[in-house]
Write a structure and sequence with these properties.
Layout (H helix, E strand, L loop, with lengths): L6 E4 L3 H12 L4 E4 L7 H5 L3 E2 L3 H7 L2 E4 L4 H8 L14 E4 L5 H14 L2 E4 L2 E2 L2 H5 L3 E6 L2 H6 L1 H5 L2 E8 L3 H29 L5 H8 L7 H12 L8 H17 L5 H18 L7 H5 L9
Parallel strand pairs: 1-2, 1-4, 2-3, 4-5, 5-6, 8-9
Antiparallel strand pairs: 7-8
Helix pairs in contact: 9-11, 9-12, 12-13
């Protein structure tokens, strides 16, 4: 019987906090690091060790999991004299669950290979509620044997793992899924804005969707209260989806692939971001769509 890995978790934001808590609940020995140290207090209260630096965390753990916002945040925890990479030693492992670009992921995989470190590229599909309920879908890239080896760790955080292939296949699959999420959100927001422009209560849209098995999408139900109440607590912050949309467009451009709808969604999200809505849920694009209807707002 193999010894469970000592897990170091970096990034205790909306998603990471829930994922790290689920690992602890599953019985794993979890240590944590977070740039904002106050977010580590509840983990210290649970008996988890809190590291002062990413390097210190990596030194005490067999497996380091990163769940941070973007490539800049990854660089901040990976690089430099106190970064995770400075503590790399053959035999340990890095599991990146952050959504970064395929190019960044590939470079990270190569760095780990050179250092003799197992690398897994495992972003997730699902937002706050799925993370809290350990119902995420994990999109796994890397060596299949390594994915299988750490299956119990992944299972503690998600309901299913989809193996995509060698890194950066997990990241590539995540961008494809987030393209759909971005367009579903915009479609719902545009439908609500069009309904209000015609004098309809957008609640009728959700009622009609609920009666249509072909269109009754669980994701729409997740965003229903945001749309109807015009309140946007962040389950998936707009700024993160905007980042991902730009990764999608960059990847498409490499193959001279035109993604006209995604390009339009990126422009709308950029407008919302520039309106100061970056930290709100991505459904906040509705606020910008309804600007011309200002006089009609309830």
């Amino acid at each position: 019987m193999s010894i469970p890995p000592r897990i170091g978790f970096i990034g205790l934001g909306i998603m990471g906090r829930a994922m790290a808590l689920n690992l602890h609940k599953a019985g794993f020995k979890v240590s944590v690091y977070n740039r904002t140290r106050t977010r580590t207090i509840e983990f210290a209260d649970l008996g988890c060790q809190v590291a002062a630096t990413p390097r210190a965390l990596a030194k005490m753990c067999d497996l380091v999991i990163t769940m941070v916002a973007d490539p800049a945040a990854m660089d901040a925890v990976m690089e430099g004299p106190e970064g995770v990479a400075s503590a790399f030693a053959g035999g340990n492992a890095l599991l990146n669950m952050s959504t970064v670009s395929p190019d960044y992921t590939l470079a990270l995989a190569k760095k780990c290979f050179t250092a003799g470190v197992t690398f897994l590229d495992c972003p997730v599909s699902g937002s706050k509620g799925a993370a809290e309920g350990a119902q995420l879908v994990i999109l796994a890239g890397g060596e299949r044997a390594a994915v299988d080896r750490y299956a119990p760790v992944l299972k503690a955080m998600g309901r299913e793992t989809v193996y995509a292939g060698p890194a950066p296949a997990g990241t590539a699959l995540k961008l494809c899924l987030n393209l759909i999420v971005a367009q579903l959100t915009t479609a719902l927001a545009e439908a609500a804005a069009l309904g209000r422009a015609q004098g309809l209560d957008p609640a009728l849209i959700f009622e009609a969707l609920g009666h249509n098995p072909a269109l009754n999408c669980g994701y729409f139900n997740l965003k229903k209260e945001n749309i109807l109440k015009r309140e946007y607590p962040p389950a998936f912050p707009l700024k993160h989806m905007l980042k991902d949309a730009r990764f999608m467009l960059a990847e498409a451009a490499k193959s001279s692939l035109d993604l006209p709808v995604t390009a339009a969604v990126e422009r709308l999200m950029a407008k919302s971001y520039n309106s100061g809505y970056g930290d709100k849920d991505l459904s906040v694009v509705l606020a910008n769509l309804e600007e011309p209807l200002g006089a009609r707002k309830e």
